[in-house]
From TrEMBL:
Keyword entries, A-Z: Membrane, Transmembrane, Transmembrane helix
UniProt-listed InterPro entries: DUF3592 (IPR021994)
Domain DUF3592: residue ranges: 53-126
Organism domain of life: Bacteria
Alphabetized Pfam families for the sequence: DUF3592 (PF12158)
Phylogenetic lineage: Bacteria, Bacillati, Actinomycetota, Actinomycetes, Streptosporangiales
TM annotation in the entry: 20-40, 137-161
Name of the protein: Uncharacterized protein DUF3592
Amino acid sequence: MRSRRTRRTHIRGGGRILGVLVLAGFAFVLTLIGGIFSFVGTLDYREYTGRADATVVERRVESDTDTGTSRQRRDDDVDITVYVDYQAEGRTFEHVTLNGLNPDDHQEGDRVQVAYPPGEPGEIVTVASTEEGAFRIFGYIGVPLLVLGLALAGAAVFVLVRRRRSGPGDAPYPPPGPHSPPYGPPPNGPYR
């Protein structure tokens, strides 16, 4: 039979591993989100200097139905895709997806100006996306999240390595005090 100290050490060690796994999972999520935001923050559409007038021909709204009950759904559980028709560089483009900043602000029938890189009129974005620093806010959010995620991942690795070196039974406990229960078998014989 295990002594009380051994049993406590075992339980505490298991809790530490669970804590490290939670920390590692949180670090992974932060690093992933931070990486995506940092990447989006580097997007630069300033070379999209071509302009064309376009007409919104379809605004497709798709509900995300696998995110819980209808009571839990929020307004942001929908995906909106905007399609436009336009002419550029002597060619006609029909039903092209509008990308960039806030394309879902436009309704069917709206006339909007789109931007494209010269020589590639099929690649369109909203004109607001071509302004300098249009996506910079994503970088300001993403870089700290990325750094925090990597720091938490480093902390999780540090705790795991430290735990392996100390061994499973070497949990840091203070020495027993004068009022601590006795550890090990009782002085007058084994347990009954």
